[in-house]
């Protein structure tokens, strides 16, 4: 499936110790934007094996920079690498996944609560700047005009028509290597229901997970618009104040 393993050092990624090769593609997003889902789809597409892709195998196919250094080091090229970092000019090719900031913050809130890292109301949470590695609008702003971006995908479009979005991406990354049936199969193997089941059965258990929340931490609701169940009008104003321009740009408002 992959070209031969190469260990030569080319250049270093900004800040991280990992080596970046010129044929690397980065799957970049702000946290909670659907990265695991797209990673599953791609891993299902490019992995020639009868075995199911699960949370462990998807990490071995698409490791995260700064987190899975050992796996990255031994991965065959050309590699696909997950990243949540802000703009990095050293990433040779970037697929940027974007999701409505309001749903992102809702997803983040539940994720951190499930990890028992959070004990506050949603309103307090979205205003608490030091919880986040960066704000959504800073992340998106840092990437939006980057010249190394080869594709920008909206989570909401992936929800609406996953096969179309994946076939557009596949034609950019691999020309006509994958046919419609293969793309359909990869999308089907990465359905919300299936991923939720896999996470419940085989996902990495978080030792600090609250018993009631034990079901799933990554694959929670998988919809767009859940923010309407969480935002007060003041919360909405707060987010609009910092992110309206980008939300408009991506047709979220
Ligand atoms: P919700 O918490 O809103 O449900 P990330 O992987 O970047 O952390 O993103 C997590 C979000 O992607 C979660 O959103 C999760 O449910 C959603 N997601 C994961 N798998 C999905 C799938 N197969 N289909 C749709 N959404 C999915």
TrEMBL record:
Cross-referenced InterPro entries: P-loop_NTPase, Sulfotransferase_dom
Keywords attached to this entry: Transferase
Residue ranges occupied by any Sulfotransferase domain in the UniProt entry: 22-238
Any GO molecular function: sulfotransferase activity
Coiled-coil regions listed: none
Similarity comment text for this entry: Belongs to the sulfotransferase 1 family.
Protein name (Swiss-Prot/TrEMBL): Sulfotransferase domain-containing protein
Organism the protein comes from: Acaryochloris thomasi RCC1774
Source organism phylogeny: Bacteria, Bacillati, Cyanobacteriota, Cyanophyceae, Acaryochloridales
């Amino acid at each position: 499936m992959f070209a031969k393993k190469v260990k030569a050092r080319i250049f270093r990624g900004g800040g991280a110790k990992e080596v970046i090769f010129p044929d690397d593609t980065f799957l970049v997003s702000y946290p909670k934007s659907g990265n695991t889902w797209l990673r599953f789809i791609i891993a299902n597409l490019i992995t020639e094996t009868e075995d199911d892709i699960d949370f462990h195998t998807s990490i071995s196919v698409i490791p995260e920079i700064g987190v899975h250094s050992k796996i990255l080091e031994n991965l065959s090229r050309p590699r696909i690498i997950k990243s949540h970092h802000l703009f990095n000019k050293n990433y040779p090719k970037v697929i940027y996944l974007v999701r409505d900031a309001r749903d992102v913050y809702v997803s983040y809130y539940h994720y951190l609560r499930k990890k028992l890292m959070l004990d506050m109301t949603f309103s307090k949470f979205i205003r608490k700047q030091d919880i986040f590695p960066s704000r959504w609008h800073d992340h998106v702003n840092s990437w939006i005009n980057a010249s190394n971006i080869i594709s920008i995908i909206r989570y909401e479009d992936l929800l609406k028509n996953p096969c179309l979005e994946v076939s557009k991406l596949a034609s950019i990354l691999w020309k006509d290597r994958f046919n419609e049936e293969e793309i359909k199969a990869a999308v089907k193997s990465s359905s919300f229901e299936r991923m939720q089941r896999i996470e419940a059965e085989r996902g990495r258990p978080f030792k600090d997970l609250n018993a009631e929340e034990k079901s799933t931490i990554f694959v929670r609701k998988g919809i767009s618009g859940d923010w309407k169940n969480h935002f007060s009008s003041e919360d909405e104003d707060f987010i609009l104040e910092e992110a309206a321009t980008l939300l408009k740009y991506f047709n979220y408002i």
